[in-house]
Design a protein that fits this description.
CATH architecture of the largest domain in chain A: Orthogonal Bundle
Number of strands of chain A: 0
Radius of gyration of chain A: 20 Å
Helix content of chain A: over 70%
CATH superfamily of the largest domain in chain A: Tetracycline Repressor, domain 2
Largest sheet of chain A: none
Structural class of chain A: mainly alpha
Strand content of chain A: under 5%
Distance between the termini of chain A: 63 Å
Number of domains of chain A: 2
Oligomer: homotetramer
DNA sequence: GATGAATGAGTATTCATTCAT
DNA sequence: CATGAATGAATACTCATTCAT
């Protein structure tokens, strides 16, 4: 049979990952059967094994894709002109706009990361990326005199990451949480800590955003 | 064997809960077999079923006990003289002193709470307790003039909870995180937001916020 | 502790047998647990084992009691003045008046008799008794000139037993069967075969039942 | 392995049903393990579940197949030229020729029919078929003047069914019963009740019974 | 490459039975 | 004698994985 093109292969993988994500978020890794995933992806039971060596590998694949997306978003933040604004947009995207199952999946993955080395690697890798991106962003903004944080970036970055973790977790498991209100409150707190942009810079900002 | 006293019954349950907690934290709910738990508790395979109707019920039992402990800690905070200090002590206890498996377990429980209604109930219940305790604490401190938060308690409490969630999650899954440093940074940020404290500092505050 | 009197002991056994009968008829031997039986008898789980060595022994005990009752009924038939009448009364008692669970139990026991030697013994024993009683009854009635069967007693008795078996089984498993109609039809057929009571007795019967 | 043809699928089911029948008749439904059945059918432990949803479903499958066979036999009787002869042949087939385990199984199924709705349905369905076939047969024979029953078909049919039930049960659980003798006696009784035969034979029979 | 039937190890749960009190 | 907690062997059923077609 004709070998599938790379594009087709990638499409097959994506389709299985999508199906698996849905199923895993719905029932958890262990309560989800390979048969369910195959059904959701509308392929046969054996088909998944052409693209993933095992269920574990499928989980790892999901972690890798999910975390890669995450890392990319934070690298974008590092380049954004207004840090707080970019951070808020990113938070809103992940916590409000993305479908809920993505967040549930993240908690599942977090739990799994303590046992599945491949998943743990994905988490470590994205953590490093996020940390570095945030550091870079903060340092640039400080250097530019746009913020004056109440603590040095090296201490502030872990705090930002904890805030993100908490926002994610809370939103994933507490259906009563109001994400917009939470983001607003967190950003307000954050602006306190990042420090009001010094008075002398206001003009600049005022110029850009009248 | 005549009926066990209530104390003895409770002891049997505790022993099983302890064993289950260990095993669950080690391998996750689904990869842990009832046989393992029984072995860890040094009882027979069937013994668990004398005290818990099912594995699910055992998980729910763990959630209930864990969350109850948590709620109690926060009720204590509400009565403490110095809010920030009490909060910090509580954080340090849960995030530094308690054995690591309790934290891993909490992530596991969080993931499970989206599927197991009994676990979800435990989470909702402790959330309510924590929220109310924090509200009470903040309002008392504000009334006493010991803090002057940058935002009303009703907005601050969710922020505090998200901070706690994040601290917990980060500490549970990131072995590289330095909990003491994190707590210190978070408390510093918090003190910024809670506003400068005691009377001897009031003049300063009065100066800043007339 | 004071040894129970024989009467008390017998009462305990009867109570357990009654409970077991109910449970067994309701769910079958194997789906019934010793715990259910104990609960139904309002004794503890271990109590049954004071009076019966095992579940199997309990089943055998039920078979023995049930079949003994049956054998006694047929011995009475052998002594009755009017054979057909006595037979009909016996059929009506077992098939109409006795509680339905006794019949369901009998089917259960019949199935079990192919596997449980003690139960099989009970069945063989009652079969012998019934056969002999019927033989005796038929021969006496023939000798007395009250019946003139279309076939010799040695051939008729097995037929009667098959009729009884069928009546019992049908009534046990077919809720739509009308037992009174069935008995009437069977008796009518039987009277055909038993032969009309000789002419000289007709007046007597006619006198009794005008 | 691509999808099996319908024939192959049916063959797989038949093989499992055969194995299950043997095992069930040998040890009863509940004492038979799915592993035993699989071994008897020379397939793996999980294979049964590809074709039957559960043990219960397997039992129901046996009941359906067994009863279907039974119903077909009786429909054939309805078409036979000589009713009594056909009935006798059918009885002989089921009670003498078929392997003993089929009869033991029927008692087992009868007991189960009071608890397993699918089995009960099979019994009800075959009962209806048998009843209708017998009715049709009797009415045709009566109309043709070949029999003159001592009671109307509507009363005779239930009697015939009870006779069949009894014959089956007796033969299933009483190893001492002589099936040929039983059938002969029952048929003799039956011929009494069905009444004198065709006109052209009347002289002979009339000679015997003036 | 795709299919889905087949495998068989693995597991939660049940339950007859025991026995310390 | 009675209790009911404890035992541990037994079993229906599941499911990741394989592989013949």
């Amino acid at each position: 049979m004709p070998r599938l093109s790379d594009d087709q292969q990638a499409a097959r993988r994506e389709r299985l990952l999508d199906a698996a994500e849905l199923c895993f978020a719905r029932s958890g890794f262990h309560a989800t059967t390979m048969a369910e995933i195959a059904r959701e992806a509308r392929v046969s039971a054996g088909a998944a094994y052409v693209w993933f060596a095992s269920k574990e590998d499928l989980i790892a694949g999901i972690a890798a894709r999910d975390r890669a997306r995450f890392a990319a978003d934070f690298e974008a933040i590092a380049e954004a002109p207004d840090f707080a604004e970019a951070l808020e947009a990113c938070a809103r995207f992940h916590v409000v706009e993305r479908p809920a199952h993505k967040r549930r999946l993240m908690v599942e993955l977090a739990a799994e990361s303590t046992r599945n080395e491949a998943v743990a690697r994905s988490f470590r890798s994205v953590d490093r990326t996020v940390r570095e991106s945030l550091m870079r962003a903060l340092e640039r903004q400080v250097a530019a005199g746009r913020i004056a944080p109440a603590m040095p970036p090296a201490r502030l970055v872990p705090v930002l990451m904890v805030l993100g973790d908490g926002l994610f977790l809370r939103r994933a498991i507490d259906p009563a949480a109001d994400p917009e209100a939470l983001i607003a409150s967190l950003m307000e707190m954050l602006r306190h800590v990042l420090g009001p942009a010094p008075a002398r810079k206001r003009r600049k900002r005022g110029a850009r955003r009248p």
